[in-house]
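Q: Given only this backbone (219 positions), what sequence would you predict?
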């Protein structure tokens, strides 16, 4: 394919904040006396803050008021931000900065499609904001992944066609979101978990531009 734009999820693709989301949710779940494992956490990846809380509460069979939910979600976010605020340039995932440099050198547009309301803060702490021609984050979308809205909005803002754009995702919900929008998608993480992606690599350090160009070709 003619690769003209790459749209990246943030948490778990550019930076290992997926780990911090997990630790903060686990702390909250423990306070609520709900067992919450890393396997359970896969279901939360890519999902909005309130939807994530609902999944945990459902798992613990707990029903609580909207007001209490808001309070719990805010508390989780405070714990999450304690980790995030320690981040500095260099803390991005292996290969992320180098891959973005390669895209820039090849005049390929770069977009962000993150469900997180903290996405801009994370990019700024890593000093990576300037790589992105367009940022679509959790403050801008009305439909959460797996709805394709976030990536379609990204391609539109980049003025690129879906057929010429590739999405990079570490979450099952994110891969579905990209595919629902008609995008080719590179899974970043475990091939057993991300088996619906077109290709899966353990990190951006393992992705080459040439293999992206051959994504549409019959194998
Ligand atoms: C996604 C993460 O990127 O953002 C989810 O994969 C997270 O785990 C979601 O819940 C919302 O993030 P935030 O920072 O707005 O709570
Ligand atoms: Mg992610």
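A: Predicted residues:
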């Amino acid at each position: 394919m003619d690769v003209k734009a790459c749209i990246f999820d943030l948490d778990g693709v550019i930076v290992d904040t997926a780990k911090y989301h997990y630790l903060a949710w686990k702390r909250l779940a423990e306070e609520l006396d709900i067992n919450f494992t890393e396997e359970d956490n896969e279901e939360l990846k890519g999902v909005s803050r309130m939807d994530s809380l609902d999944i945990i509460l459902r798992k613990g069979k707990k029903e609580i008021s909207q007001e209490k939910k808001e309070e719990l979600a805010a508390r989780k976010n405070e714990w999450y931000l304690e980790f995030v605020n320690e981040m500095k340039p260099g803390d991005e995932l292996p290969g992320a900065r180098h891959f973005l440099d390669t895209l820039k050198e090849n005049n390929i547009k770069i977009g962000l499609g993150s469900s997180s309301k903290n996405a801009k803060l994370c990019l700024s702490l890593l000093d990576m904001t300037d790589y992105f021609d367009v940022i679509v984050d959790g403050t801008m979308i009305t439909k959460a992944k797996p709805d394709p809205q976030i990536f379609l909005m990204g391609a539109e803002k980049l003025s690129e066609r879906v057929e010429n754009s590739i999405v990079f995702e570490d979450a099952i919900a994110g891969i579905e979101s990209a595919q629902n929008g008609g995008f080719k998608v590179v899974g970043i993480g475990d091939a057993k978990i991300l088996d619906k992606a077109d290709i899966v690599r353990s990190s951006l350090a393992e992705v080459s531009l040439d293999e992206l160009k051959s994504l549409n070709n019959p194998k």
